[in-house]
Amino acid sequence: MASVIRRFDSLPQPEPGLTEAVLVERAAALRPRLREQQAEADRRGHYGEELHEAFRRAGFYRILQPRLFGGYELAPRTFVRVVMEISRGHPGSGWCFALAASHGFFVAAHFPESVQRELFGPTGEFRSPQVAGPCGTMTPVEGGYLVDGVFPFASGVPVCTHFMGGSLAPTPGGPPRHVAFVLERKDIEVLPDWGEGRFMGMQASGSNSVRVTRKFVPERHVVDLDMLTSSEFAPRGTHGYRLHGNPMYTAVLLGWFNTEFAGILTGAAWAALDEFEASARTKSVFGNPALKRMQDPFVQNLFGNCKAMVESAQALTLAAADLYLEQAQRAAAAERPVTTQDTFEVWGLAQQACRLAGDAVTALFHASGASTGRSDQPLQRYFRDIEMYRLHIQSQPNLPTARGKVEFGLANGIFD
Hints:
Butyryl-Coa Dehydrogenase, subunit A, domain 1; Butyryl-CoA Dehydrogenase, subunit A, domain 2; Butyryl-CoA Dehydrogenase, subunit A, domain 3; 4-stranded mixed beta sheet; 4-stranded antiparallel beta sheet; 15 helices; 10 strands; disordered N terminus
């Protein structure tokens, strides 16, 4: 054990006095650079090396990472607030960052200590997308599986060190297990199917497909995905809670995952408000060049309503992040596990935040005039980004239906 401890002596340590306010301020300070590079990042399909290094230096990738492995182990709301600020600079970059930076949280919760030490490594550098799937195939071999297949929409993968995929692992004499597995970046192929205008929105999200060609995954790098909606699968607590002593590493995924999206969309809505306000202060009312648009009662009413919607989206998003942590703390105190109903409560707050943020962006875009539809206009980018989210599974009506079935006692989980 002593040799293992020495191996991690060089891990970065949290800065003295590092707080949520400091990290949020750092993210806000990058807003001008993010906005300047929006078009370039969209063409590339993800933010560039300059911003990646800025995020690393600022410590953003380590917010949710355990202190044991060089992270800051700060509250989930801190991460969400940083996601909001990055997304206010560029929603696509916010999506890429959030889905690259948040899955070390999953590893810290659900893998045993030996695997966490292996994956975080001597530098504590771990960034990974997660394609929950199930996709591809897993063929049992001695000590693990051979994984083969294409895993679409691996958001964040261009800036990642690892890849986490989801597939079905055969079980002798029983149904297959829905599992997550982890591979190093060198063991995957990132396909060139994102960026360059291939999709209507979130063009900088780095949502490339990943091809895995008969790569060996040891059994220790595979975990069941039964933690999506409940902690009842782990009555003694997760590996992460027992190792790190922090209840947030209970990491029940479904509600938390949608909270990340709410942070991205709320940031996009703040960006749309910024753009609309700047335009209203400088553009004249149609037919009356003596008046600025901000003097038009219609514009005043719209802006006031939309700002209230965005403020509400932010409040709901942060409330969802705080509720996630409260539920995890309660589970750790052994009062009762995080139930499927609990998870849907977090998910529902975040989903309503996404709806409010999206509706605000839509209203602002529709009231901005035809010139806003030009491809070089930021507000049309924010509108397209919102519309891309509306195609995502998290925004579809099947999840509220699943929640209703659970609440009525007609199902025990999302897939029942």
